[in-house]
Amino acid sequence: MTPDPALVSELRSALGADAVLVSAEACTPFECDALNTQRRRPDIVALPRSPEQVMAVLNACRRHATPVVARGAGTGLSGGALPVAGGVLLVMSRLDQIIEIDPARRIARVQPGVTNLEISQAAAPFGLYYAPDPSSQVACTIGGNVAENSGGVHCLKHGLTVHNLLEIRVATIDGEWLTLGSASGEAPGLALLPLFTGSEGMLGVTVEATVQLKPLPERVELVLAAFGDVRRCADAVGRIIATGIVPAGLEMMDAPAIRAAEAFVHCGYPTDAAALLLCELDGLNHDVQRELDAVQALLHDCGATSLRVATGAAERLRMWSGRKSAFPAVGRLAPDYFCMDGTIPRRHLAGVLERIGEMSRAAGLPVANVFHAGDGNLHPLILFDAGQPGEVERAEYLGAEILELCVAVGGTVTGEHGVGVEKLGPMCTQFGADELEAFHALKRAFDPDGLLNPGKAIPTLARCADYGAMRVHGGKLPFSHLPRF
Amino acid sequence: MDRDCTSALVEQVREASVRRVPLRVVGGDTKRFHGRATEGRALETREHGGILRHDPAELVLTARAGTPLAEIEAALASKGQRLPFEPPHFGSGATLGGTVACGLAGPARAWSGPLRDFVLGARVLTGDGRVLRFGGEVMKNVAGYDVARLLAGSLGILGVLLDVSLKVLPRPPGERTLALEMDEATALTRLAELARSALPLSAGSWIDGRAYLRFEGSDATLDEVQRRLGGEVVAESRDFWSGLREQSHPFFAGDAPLWRCTLPPLAPQLSIEGTPLVEWNGLQRWYRCPPGVTAFAAASAVGGHATLFRHAPAGVDVFSPLPPAMLRLHRALKRELDPAGILNPGRMYADL
Fold first, then answer.
1. What CATH number should be reported for the domain whose range is A5-91?
2. What CATH number labels B172-253?
3. Which residue of A has its CA nearest to B156?
4. Beta pairing class for B60-64 and B277-279
5. Band (A373; pLDDT cuts 50, 70, 90)
6. Backbone angles phi, psi at A166, to 5 degrees
7. B125 to chain A: which residues are within 8 Å by CB?
8. Of A1, A16, A243, A393, which is most buried, counting CB atoms within 10 Å of its CB?
């Protein structure tokens, strides 16, 4: 589609000629996010340098009734930043300044294009860090984290983005500035900050975020436990938590994932184990010691065939490295894979894993499991070969079955990757028509003309037959240099 | 006995919606003082009670809105768990629904996070009589907008809570409260310093020249904290903190207007006559002001907000005013979920 010349010239006069891209060559790199099976080259890419320029883009789009999609680093796994036809792609990466690290108040004030890890790095000299740690944290931006309510491996104890966010400044499509939340954490009126967090760019554009920093823990310990069967391992997860311990991280891998990771990074995992559990404990010295003793006794009691406690930071990182490289490691086992993201109540872990195994055998497609067991957040990786006739469809069908199983046991179709365009179909399994209509109504309150990221996150009732899933070709993820967990 | 009153509540709301009869949503009626006064026929939710699910290994409790808060806390305590945000009851009849709708938290707020952080899901009855379910009973869930958390602290203006799922946490092995003599300015600095240390400071308060510091953890941790900080161990620790939480402390006696100021970390002393009661390591400060004095300007001067919490003189608004764009958005949201405007009209702001 040829871009509207009046809109282009309006954007160029507001942002400068070099900040508005229209040529196919310049726009092609922005055609997808990390869900790279879905591509659409944007007609116009706008690269503002300031909040005022962001507002200028939104105002121009409103005047020209043009859809606008905000994009951070493009690391999203569900296609939330996929360009829409005839629209403007609003790329926030040039708003990349850390405005302030205030150690005394334990806050960081940043522009949306600052990466997640940069915040922790800037806070580290003060003994502080930013807790949410999505796997793409070296590249993903805080603006994208707000849009997706990003998680990571430490959510059970340290929370998601929504729990670590104090205040955001938002530009609306109506041309208004909103301040949601406050530095005290308490603001008058409705709790719009949590509503906005995870809204996938459908309600407004974040131009500044104030986040809470946490003191670095005094002591960290990591235990690796191997099990001879998956059920015992899954049951240990619930027993650790029921005993009154909230681990900083509690991650599980099954046999295919263990073997793939060990072959990939040689981190010393027991390749004869049916399942392994990584349990990280953090806090004050005495408390961590008490929990470490209790966790070891409990894992032993649950039938762990071997137990190892990392002897220092170096070994801890090595033990984590297998887990953190599990996605690319599994990606080497087959030409393609889909990654699911369902969350279930923990009590169903063993049963759901067994059922996924049965579904996998029935479909004739292997599934590797590597996931956030403490949160009940599964990442089944369905292996297939798109070159074989019918395999894509079989893999998609299996993926849909798995997400339906998650919903059936009281869970959700997406724990942390977002809906984007990928899970519009599965959303229809989880929500009824009344809830979907309420979501559309809430969007109308922020965006009456439906110009912000239209068609994402919330399916129209008409869309409710469609299904999609993440597809990886040739074992290559976009951002393949990033660990995925 | 089945305590599910969903259909009766739906019936009442639908009828009121058609006839445009305003409703005052009531749980235990313990927090009627909170927010602006609202006129309307009482919609009683107390009978709609009962804990639906609580599996300690899940760290989740789901209960109907009319369930007494005391029943929930007792059920959690029997499994060594608790509501981390330590909500005030303000009376023996407090219910889960009222607690979530008011969104108030107790002394642990600065340590644990606000009530809304622990809301995982909710079933809600909208102003036009639809029953909707948002969120769920799992720790991580990014499917759809987070309407369940939007309802926390919404004072019932968007919908009537039917069931709520909360994240709960284990009780710590022990707690200890230390009291140290210091003036207000010193306390404000000291509390903020302790909050950014790795020490497990689960509550930090200052009143009448003494800072009260509550720590949680193993005995060994608590002994070490005490060695490091000194101070006097407060024997009746639970009573002291419940006195602040329930406002039975003498500071809260009498009928002078009670102002609640919520402030950014390290906010200086406010330019308000009188000595405050400080909570949440300085993030929340209570003031008793003579009628005619308001705290809005003093709080906003340092980047905070004020609420006239109790004993509001006639004609004084109780919440900090919203900027015009925010107020328009609030109206639009209200219109979408309560088109007839019958749920707790005016409870939060005059025309909401």
1. 3.30.43.10
2. 3.30.70
3. A190
4. unpaired
5. very high
6. -105, -45
7. none
8. A243
pLDDT digits (tens, 9 = 90+) for A23-38: 999 999 999 998 887 8
Cβ contact (<8 Å) for B138 and A412? yes
Question: What are the pLDDT digits (tens) for B279-322?
Answer: 999 999 999 999 989 999 999 999 999 999 999 998 888 999 99
What is the CATH number assigned to the segment(s) A102-215? 3.30.465.10
All residues of chain B having their beta carbon less than 8 Å from the beta carbon of residue A202 are: 145
| Euclidean distance between CA atoms B343 and B352, whole angstroms | 9
Tokens of B37: 């006064």
- Test B220 with A286 for CB contact under 8 angstroms: yes
Question: Which residue has 């508005």 as its token pair?
Answer: A20
Closest residue of A to B101, CA-based? A190
* CB within 8 Å of chain A, chain B residues 220-279: 220-221, 224, 262-266
Q: How does pLDDT run across B161-198, given as a tens digit for each residue?
A: 999 999 999 999 999 999 999 999 999 999 999 999 99
* Residue from B34, B85, B142, B227 whose CB has the most chain A CBs within 10 Å, to mutate: B142
Domain B6-171+332-337 -> CATH class: alpha beta
Core vs surface per residue A141-155: b (16+ CB within 10 A) or e: bbbbbbbbbbbbbbb
Is the minimum CB–CB distance between B128 and chain A shorter than 8 Å?
A: no
User: Can you spell out the DSSP letters for B27-52?
Assistant: SSS--TTSSS---SEEEE-TTS--EE
pLDDT per residue as tens digits for the range A124-133: 999 999 999 9
CA A293 to chain centre: 33
Could you tell me the CATH superfamily of domain A219-408?
Answer: FAD-linked oxidase, cap domain/gating helix (3.40.462.40)
CB–CB of A345 and B55 under 8 A?
A: yes
DSSP per residue, A302-349: TT-SEEEE--SHHHHHHHHHHHHTHHHHHHTSSSEEEE---B--GGGH
Taking the CA of residue A266 and the nearest CA in chain B, the distance in Å comes to 31
With CA atoms as reference, the chain B residue closest to A187 would be B305
pLDDT tens readout for residues A78-123: 999 999 999 999 999 999 999 999 999 999 999 999 999 999 999 9
Confirm if A214 and A277 have CB atoms less than 8 A apart.
no
A202, A244, A418: residue with CB nearest B142: A418
Domain range summary for chain B, segments of one domain joined by +: 6-171+332-337, 172-253, 254-320
Q: Write down the domain spans for chain A.
A: 5-91, 102-215, 219-408
**Residue B217: closest CA among chain A residues belongs to which residue?**
A287
